[in-house]
Specification:
485 residues, alpha+beta, seven-stranded antiparallel β-sheet, six-stranded antiparallel β-sheet, 18 helices, 25 strands, binds iron/sulfur cluster
Length: 485
Amino acid sequence: MLSGPREYCGVFGVYAPGEDVARVAFYGLYALQHRGQESAGIVTADGHELHSHLGMGLVSQVFDEENLRHLRGHMAIGHNRYSTTGSSRLKNAQPFRVSGPNGEIALGHNGNLVNVETLRNDLEEEGYEFTTTTDSEVMARILAHAPGNSWPERFAHMMRRVQGAYCLVVITPDALFAVRDPLGVRPLCLGRLNGGWVVASESCAFDHIGATFMREVDPGEVIQITARGIRSLHPLESNKSAFCVFEYIYFARPDSVIRDKLLYPVRMAMGARLAQEFPVDADVVMGVPDSAIAAAIGYARESGIPFIEGLVKNRYVGRTFIMPDQRIRDIGVQLKFNPLTELLKGQRVVVVDDSIVRGTTTPRVVEMIRRAGAREVHMRITAPPITHPCFFGVDMAARWELIAAQKTVPQIREHINADSLGYLSLDGLVGAIGLAKETFCLACFTGEYPLPVPLQMDKLALEPPTTARDRHDFEWVESVPTFNS
Ligand code: SF4
């Protein structure tokens, strides 16, 4: 969909002597472009020092033959950024390079810390100085200064201090690390490439570079890759899992495999469940491109109503402009979609989409389909109503902005001007995925967070006053222990 929850960074790493690792990282990031379009960066290491290039924009805009040629070495990490903490600017681009008593490191982060303000205040009192406004720098500085004689000890120190969602790729002059938080909120997987190793936010990146998927990085695991080989460490016990269910609904690419599930058929199953829960007499079923197409096909198959592509998406509009602030978010749907009037005219249309967040886009989609001549528009959503914000790396909106936190389903139906509206139930959603409910974070639907979270969190909270929006005082709310507790 056009203005749903926003993605929140992709990370990639490769350790492959003999390969052009900068180019491998480039293609890996290219495959993960959907996870962040604000900035991109690659840092390589050659056993002695780090080399980096970062820039604002898409991967294809940031890198060219010339700057890739300068990225020498046998290992690399890369990052696509969508800002969840810190504003959109070059100095906040990743991977970050920082130096400390433990030498120089670079770090790329996907996720969001929930204790970042407290941590940063503590660190500033300890004498740390920060150059950016991101939680990723907080982690990088803790690591670069962490006590311990080995990197595993230093990672254990950092992981004991930080709370929240983090998948990290970290590079030193002679080692590469992949790290996943103990709850395993965000995805991270491990693969092989010509005798070397690769890590990526999603397995689809492996397909594009000819790597073989091996397994997911475990929650709480640190993987260390050096000239001596690979080793797996579990510095912190991980006794509960809270994987973000929205990866299945919307964020991850449909050709990615997460927890042994290929996403495309999972999304078709969500559509099929939706057809069982909210059947309707209609002539055609369509999905809002691209993320809801698989679910719409699932709805069509289950209901026996023919599937059509009622909206054609202009794939070349938006990507270069999509930035996570409201001005750009409000770009009209008409720039992005064109309705196929001949197919829609006079029809009773089921429209499948993956979410309604603020309720600003869906009325425009409905209006566009009506203007194309549809007789009825029945909206079907492959997720329950979003009633709570995300604190784990998804720019979902503040609670007061979430339409389902303010209105009932009948009121939302009226607001979007649909003839009917059906949201997939929580049990239907989890049942379609086919994994145990207690292994997921479902907090944006239930308000039951897997960790204590600040009642309000501002992604610009670490910005200096000149650039920050109004500050919020943080209150803390206890988590509701529903996840494997
Ligand atoms: S709150 Fe929602 S979007 Fe955020 S991690 Fe949990 S399920 Fe995912």
